[in-house]
Specification:
The protein contains 4 helices and no strands. It is an all-alpha fold. The chain has one domain. It starts with a helix and ends with a helix. 2% of the residues are buried. The chain binds zinc ion. The site of zinc ion (ZN) has 8 residues, from loops.
């Protein structure tokens, strides 16, 4: 084994323990955040909700045909809190 190999090994370990960042706001997650957290990989319930909304929006366009009630009420079910974030 070459000396260089052990250096790369250390780099890999450091990469694995680097703090995760929230995919929505890119804030660093708490050190103890992990797969056991109900919010993982998000930093907060707000960011989780934003992600959920984005997925739901995409699904509507692809899977679900437009219904009359959507045209009458396009903003139904969208909390003001989320509108501010998007
Ligand atoms: Zn976040």
């Amino acid at each position: 084994m070459f000396p260089d190999d052990s250096v790369h090994l250390v780099d890999d370990v450091n990469a694995m323990i680097r703090p995760q960042t929230c995919p929505i706001c890119e804030k660093e997650l708490a050190a103890d955040a992990g797969l056991n957290s109900p919010l993982f990989p998000f930093c907060s319930q707000r960011c989780k909700d934003v992600d959920l909304y984005r997925w739901g929006e995409g699904k509507y366009q692809i899977v679900e045909p437009l219904k009359p009630e959507h045209l009458q009420n396009p903003d139904v079910d969208l909390p003001e809190e989320l509108e501010e974030l998007l």
